[in-house]
Amino acid sequence: MASALAAKMGFNSLMRKQAKTFNVRISTMESDLEFSCEVKWKGKDLFDLVCRTLGLRETWFFGLRYNIKDTVAWLKMDKKVLDQEVPKEEPIIFHFLAKFYPENAEEELVQDITQHLFFLQYGDYDPAVHKPGFLAEEELLPKRVINLYQMTPEMWEERITACYAEHRGRTRDEAEMEYLKIAQDLDMYGVNYFLIRNKKGTDLLLGVDALGLHIYEPDNKLTPKCSFPWNEIRNISYSDKEFTIKPLDKKANVFKFNSSRLRVNKLILQLCIGNHDLFMRRRRVDSLEVQQMKAQAREERARKQVERQRLQREKQLREEAERARDELERRLIQLQDEADMANEALLRSEQTADLLAEKAQIAEEEAKLLAQKAAEAETEMQRIKVTAIRGQEERRLMEQKMLEAKMVALKMAEESERRAKEAEQLKQDLLEARDSERRAKNKLLEITSKAVYMSPGLAPDSMPQDVSFSRENLSFDFKDTDMKRLSMEIEKEKVEYMEKSKHLQEQLNELKTEIESLKLKERETPLDIIHNQNTEQGTSKHSNFKKLTLQSTKSRVAFFEEL
């Protein structure tokens, strides 16, 4: 079976040599790219093709990494791709990743694409889109961090959304840079760790990063025991598994350490050489290419500033127009409601006037009838007086009837007078009702005229006719822009950006303080505990590095060898 496998591998190798091309798949941090490469291509040919495809010019931070057995390796630029220990199956898979990290992301990362490749994922807050639950599918926090706090997903989302909403309007570039500035201050940022042993055989960790070489205890990747900046190192080499570091200080001894495998030594050497070159490069005058890139970046920032101002103005005008439209619609609805109420009042006034007129007519007729009856009673009384009956009994009866008739006549006269007054009052109410009807009609006419004035599509003579939200009225000619004014605006924006950055740091500290009481101490890892201790002592990565390098190189080498 072994012979069959060897034959198969030999056959595959023969086929690859006979072929003129081979296929690769490049996995970037947001997409996959596939290329057909010539067999004669070196690593640099493939790497340059990927960078051109991505539009990347700051190529020195990145590399093509591939998996090999139980470790990883970076594609060498000066060797043919197929002559290296790359996987044999096609398409050959490479990962386009950051190989070296900047000391100061804000100063060193010039291109937007470079910054974006160091950090992927951001968008502006929109309350219409980012409703409760929008983070449910996003893995914004590691599971370990979520489990470390006694907080529900809804509690995390509430706090994250509040911060997200407060920074609404930030550009993606600003947000990514703030993220990178926070990340670069973390203790493990950009550090590649390797298991090593010093000459005493003590197990240690070697950390390689942008600042230099760091030696850690195996259970503490945060706080190095000693450090050697790149400007103190003159030469690095290895023989088999043994690494040799020659300090620049001739008084200091050469110090050595052993790694686990030869292949790991190759990786360590690659990272050391690349980080050392970048360290020294940062401390020299920028090359012509970098100067051109920075000039182009400044011009691009100025152009973006003008474009942002234009878009902001357009957005402001659009929002003002929408507010004006909403106010018109609200006012029209209000006027419509007032018109409906006036119509109802008019209808009630008309009905009241008709009713009062009818009552007045009835009261007038009743008054006439009572007056007629009073007159008839008076006539009857006179007739009774004339035709009085002689007898005492008859006279008494007659007087009684006369008294009753007189009482009836008096009551009828009073009722007639009351009815007359009521009729007069009803006439007065009728006049007032008709006057109210007239006022209601006038109010309705006034509201109707206002509604016509405010309706969409109609513009009265008093309204300006030259308002336009077209892009033509808002366009800018960058060539004619006052550069001094633009520089002042950019400087102002920079100050505002620094204030925003400071506010963001304060906000993060407030959030950390707020959720600290919800932390489950029993779930903290040893690294969590070390980080908390460093924070309480005010020890940061940079302060610790400065403190470690205060001692002479000779004493640090001796300290390393005695660990």
From TrEMBL:
Pfam families: ERM_C (PF00769), ERM_helical (PF20492), FERM_C (PF09380), FERM_M (PF00373), FERM_N (PF09379). This is NF2, moesin-ezrin-radixin like (MERLIN) tumor suppressor. Residues 487-524 form a coiled coil. It is a peripheral membrane protein. Keywords: Cell membrane, Cell projection, Coiled coil, Membrane. A 1,2-diacyl-sn-glycero-3-phospho-(1D-myo-inositol) binds at residues 76-79, 266. One of its GO terms (molecular function) is actin binding. Residues 301-320 are annotated as: Disordered. It comes from the Eukaryota. Residues 1-283 form the FERM domain. One of its GO terms (cellular component) is plasma membrane. The gene is NF2. It is found in: Cell membrane; Cell projection. SMART domains: B41, FERM_C.
